[in-house]
Write a structure and sequence with these properties.
The structure is a single chain. With 344 residues, this protein is of the alpha/beta class. Helix content is 29%, strand content 25%. The protein contains ten helices and 16 strands. The strands form three sheets. Strands 3, 5, 6, 7, 8, 15 and 16 form a seven-stranded mixed β-sheet that branches. Helix 4 (178-185) links the parallel strand 10 and strand 11. Helix 2 packs across helix 3 (155-166). The longest helix has 21 residues, at 118-138. The relative contact order is 0.15.
Length: 344
Amino acid sequence: MKGLFCRAATDAELKFIIQETTLPEVLGSHLVRVQVKACGLSPLDLKLLDDVGIQRDLIPVGREVAGVVQRVGDKVSFFQPEDEVVGILPLDSTCSGLCDTIDIDEHYLVQKPEKLSSVCVAGALRDGLGAHTALHTHARVAAGHTLLVLDGASSFGLMCVQLACYHGVKVFTTSHSPQQHTFLEQLRPSVAKVIPVFKSPSDLLPVLLEETGGLGVDIVIDSGVRLQEEESKAAKLLPHKHDIISVLGVGGHWVTSHKDLQLDPPDCRMLHLKSASMSFLNHEVWTASSAQQGRYLHILKDIVEKMSAGVLRPQPEEAVPLYEATVAMETVQRHQKRKAVVQL
């Protein structure tokens, strides 16, 4: 049986290779053996793995999986053979999600609704989890709040927009191209305003203040932040940290995905004057700690049920075959593509 693994050739270069792997004959008490049908590929964060003490020569690649249960351990209570399941492999998993068959603890899996395709859920589960965490765990979103989602046409941004609209939130978002702008304006339920930052990034602050009567928004969820004034062309589409703080209303909350964000004293002073707060969104926090395992499973179940009901409608990713997985992962790791899904 073959799987996809990563070897760090240098600090700046990663090498993805197909490697033979085997599963033990005896299945652990709480483990579930799953035949993988589809696997989502997201960029590897080697710094995070090092921070949590995971150091290996070969790092398994592909953690968002959907498949069918083949066997269960003698103490497994949630699943039985032939159940369709979906889940995210933990950070310390030794299995690659691109293997034909994997072993995973039952506490990382939930039932997959029958009408939901394996490719769809494997491609969108991580972003759905991130959106739920940002809106509910961090921002405590409620009906009547105002929300700014940066880059709403991205897979993560789209999940945030749709989930917020479902809860009765007034949503503003930004577009990075004319095609994205048209797509976001056609969303149903519709957003309050799509701001085309590809035309003029400096329009974000005045447009939002005008739309909110100068009050600002209750919540901001970013997908990256520009820390310096002069950066690359692509970075100029990202908002400057000062602009984000400026659009926050009194008591507002900023959820950032920028892991190295640094706030200067004037930034902190502005947050203090508004009695505003900020938090860091770590997509891996649920699988890195088992302290709230029950809550994590509840979130996963809620996400797949909302996908099945059509509340969350991710943009479908074109599935690639297994023999193209190495090239697809290299593309994702270089951020030339945001997501890839491999169909097994």
